[in-house]
Amino acid sequence: MTTYRSHQRRHLSAWKILRIMSRNIWASRGLIWELGKRDLFGQYKNYFLGSAWILISPILEVCFWLYLQKTGILKPGDTPIPYPAYIYIGLTMWGMFVAFYNAGVSTLKSAGGMLMQVNFPHEAYLLKQTLHYLFTFTIQLAMALLVLLMFGVIPSWKIVFLPLAALPLFCFGAAIGLVLSLSAVMALDVAPFMNFILRILMLSIPVVYAPAVQSPLAQTINQWNPLTYLVCSCRDLVIYGRLYDTVGYALSAMLAVVLFLIALKIFFVSEKRVIERMVS
């Protein structure tokens, strides 16, 4: 016999919610696969250059930062590898965090009319969006490895551990995205505001400048910013086969997992109320 209580979801622990969501995602694997194929082939359907934008976008981004460096506007310091290779792999890893955030924040919004028409576990869209962005990231990572080789930098064989090292980064990005997804569907100004914040956050970690930055303020921000350890550890694992800072990475990883569990509970408890407001 199943007993239902008022506000039943509020009384579930974060671990219980995680197990429920995991079962729901597994049960919806067919839906995830079909939606993933639809989005993958339709993403650049109306673009003149099509899927070539997957490669063009990071190249344009790198060119922008190289221009700032060459003109003296940006002084990145002495980077351990040639600056074009350093910035390319750094921006690629930062892009992975942004992809995880986008996967979370678009969980409800990307579902669109399906929320009102089809009864399905909405956490399935989190995995679908994550896999979609990971496919794009894989192509960009392959391009980044080619750039490293062009500049004489041999990637470490320990790159095989990158998926494991990136798990805390997923937890951190998805946690922020899931919480904001509840408000993004109701307030359209959340997305542009967060895009601005993300640009600032990127400058708070050493991905476009050397780790040994001279500014005391920048050093302090880097030291206390968990994204410094999560993003830069993924980058250094590819280049050197080691983490950026083992202790900092471990502490940041634990923080990311805790935030992810809290975000899951907030999302699980609040999603139906948000959807009801969308309908009304």
What's the number of extended β-strand segments? 0
The poorly predicted ranges are: none
Major sheet details: none
Sum up the overall morphology in one term: globular
Distance between the termini: 33 Å
Assembly category: single chain
User: What do the pLDDT scores average to?
Assistant: 80
* Helix and strand sequence: HHHHHHHHHHHH
Helix content: 55-70%
**Number of helical regions:** 12
Structural class, from secondary structure content? Answer: mainly alpha
Strand share of the residues?
A: under 5%
In angstroms, what is the radius of gyration?
20 Å
Short summary of the structure?
The chain is an all-alpha fold and 280 residues long. It has helices spanning 14-27, 29-42, 53-70, 83-105, 114-117, 123-150, 162-165, 167-184, 190-203, 216-224, 226-239, 246-279. The protein has a domain at 77-201 and 212-279.
What features would you describe in this structure?
This protein has 280 residues and is mainly alpha-helical. It contains 12 helices and no strands. The mean pLDDT is 80.
List the helices and strands and how they pair.
Elements: H1 14-27, H2 29-42, H3 53-70, H4 83-105, H5 114-117, H6 123-150, H7 162-165, H8 167-184, H9 190-203, H10 216-224, H11 226-239, H12 246-279
What key phrases describe this protein's structure?
mainly alpha, 12 helices, 69% helix, 280 residues
